[in-house]
Amino acid sequence: MAVTIKQVASAAGVSVSTVSRAFTAPDQVQPQTLQRVREAAAALGYSPNPAARSLRGGRTGSLGLIIPDIANPFFPPIFKAMQARARRLGYTVLAADTDEREYDELETIAAVSKQVDGLILWASTLPEERLRELGAEMPTVLVNRHVEGMAELRISLAQGIAQAAEHLKAYGHTRCVFVNAEHGEHGRGKSIREVFEAHDLSLTELGPYDPRFETGLHAATLVAAGEATAVLAHNDLVALGVLHQFAKLGVGVPDRVSVIGIDDTLLAATSTPSLTTIRISADEVATAAADLLIDTIAGRGEGRVAGIGSRLIPRASTGPAPG
Amino acid sequence: MAVTIKQVASAAGVSVSTVSRAFTAPDQVQPQTLQRVREAAAALGYSPNPAARSLRGGRTGSLGLIIPDIANPFFPPIFKAMQARARRLGYTVLAADTDEREYDELETIAAVSKQVDGLILWASTLPEERLRELGAEMPTVLVNRHVEGMAELRISLAQGIAQAAEHLKAYGHTRCVFVNAEHGEHGRGKSIREVFEAHDLSLTELGPYDPRFETGLHAATLVAAGEATAVLAHNDLVALGVLHQFAKLGVGVPDRVSVIGIDDTLLAATSTPSLTTIRISADEVATAAADLLIDTIAGRGEGRVAGIGSRLIPRASTGPAPG
DNA sequence: CCTCTTCATGAAAACGATCCCGCAAACACT
DNA sequence: AGTGTTTGCGGGATCGTTTTCATGAAGAGG
To answer: What's chain A's average pLDDT?
Structure first.
């Protein structure tokens, strides 16, 4: 059915080796031969069979992207950007979702890993030991997870948080609330506490809850009953819940309370009022992760640690503190 | 590096053929032999090399999903659901984005088609002739596109729109606006016009514009200046723009104008006020599309047409007409 | 003119699985 | 007992590439 290298070879009057070379190492074949081969290939509509290619070469030309939840609006732009980057470098991206469950993560990785040259593990929940094993078996890049000796992409919220703190301070806020929607140590809470303290802003922490819209609803009710004039939420989705509940309670945003999200997803730009948030650039993140993985595959990455920053995007949900 | 069938064979003291059979046709091998093979495979951590398998068998075990824009919040849940369904049936889903550009679509399809057993083309912009060619080359399922003789999944908004019309009518609305954000004939406009007319509701059409947030902002300004009391937007994103602008203009929702979206994305549930919208079930759609494609691959699908319905999800953005 | 490289090309061996054949043993039937 | 059928398994061809090695021609240098 499909046209093979053999047919191209006989059409061009050369051997299969030459056709192969014409595609993989064009400088090793004479210009006129090259052209004949190319014409024949074009005429027949030939393109190499990736299965055969990977069988022989041991390389699949794909990168595996393992993320917690593709339905989280933070990830699609990353997938998209990574796809674009990968394509330019001759790779395909195979994305898979673990549904935030540890059990599924192992299964997913097992299913994907056979078909890719390397893995990008986003905020993996796997124990360090497993990650180490995985890293020994195949090129692996960890995002937002640290294991000594493994390649890592670290997304730093520090700048964004610092800018948020300055922003709030400039508006005269002094009492802030952080809605923590994440369990465990590696979260966003630590760096937020530190930065706010350094800026001399009082910070009350709510939670930890789950990173869901309803968490925001609940937290907003608590905040409305208190004295705080600014809320920093774990992410945009939670911030949206906060916004929603404030509207319901008649609490003015930003007149009575200012609200800040994190991630700068589509949600933030389209909410009412539009949401001040801390942006993590999908392009930067995706590009850095893809490049790091490709370097690791080529043996040049090997435990390198790359970093990505963040910044505040001021919108309509923040304003002067009341009074 | 990786463990092959040969190693398993010698570990189990059988031939490679037997190991292969143990995995692909377990009933053709004696129970005790089967167990020995399985134990050996488990001990070595063997799993078949997909590249070798597809090279020999001509099947890749992957489904290709070509969508206009993965960053459109409508698609991630579909991708997710399809992945879940496909996995249960022994398939992997390879998703790719065309960025809404026709040129990219061809290129994307070319890149993907070599690595999958079949294609799901979502709202393809390709000319009918190309689609026909594609369908001749490989199993293809069209979503929201019709080409005689090709397998098709048709998402019908008819019920949802009818319910929306009834809903508005019951609330006493008579003058409605449809914000069209799509060019071409195959769109949502036709069926909306028909249904609203059948329900005796006057319908003014704005556009066509592009399906973006800003379209909603613009349309809302026009609506606010007019007499209409209800807006049906092309999708949730546009509806959110409408909501946003109404808030800015001080136009009460739903007191002065009711707003309805389409798709029931995350945006609709989390907006302020929450958005009444027409739901297209991601699970149903993804399952139906995957099943249809798998049937087509197996030669059982062949130009079948499957249908998926929709329904209204009433939320807080609709209410009684003013006066 | 002869040797020594370089260069373009072809032949053939992999890569790791599947699957068609063929063989032998076990069983059923006359 | 002899013949036919089923069953379980091994041998080996095969899928479409890449890549190593060999070969012969062309070019360089003395």
So the answer is: 94
Contact B63, B94 (CB under 8 A): yes
Ranges of H-type helices in chain A = 5-12, 16-24, 31-44, 50-57, 75-88, 102-113, 128-137, 158-170, 189-198, 213-224, 236-249, 266-270, 282-297
Does residue B186 carry a pLDDT above 80?
A: no
Report the distance separating Cα A118 and Cα A84, nearest Å.
17
Look up the pTM and report it.
0.93
Give chain D positions with protein CB within 7 A: 7-12, 14-20
Which bases of chain C are contacted by protein, using any atom under 7 A from a CB?
Answer: 7-12, 14-20
Q: Using a 7 Å CB cut-off, which residues contact strand C?
A: A 13-18, 21, 28-30, 32-34, 52, 55-56; B 2, 4-6, 16-17, 20-21, 23-24, 46, 48-49, 52-53, 55-57
**Which tokens sit at A71?**
């339905």
Average per-residue pLDDT for chain B: 94
For residue B32, what are the CA distances in angstroms to A202, B23, B47, B129, B213? Answer: 69, 14, 20, 55, 64
DSSP A45-99: T----HHHHHHHHS---EEEEEES-TTSTTHHHHHHHHHHHHHHTT-EEEEEE-T
What Cα–Cα distance (Å) separates residue A292 from each residue in A77, A115, A119?
18, 19, 11
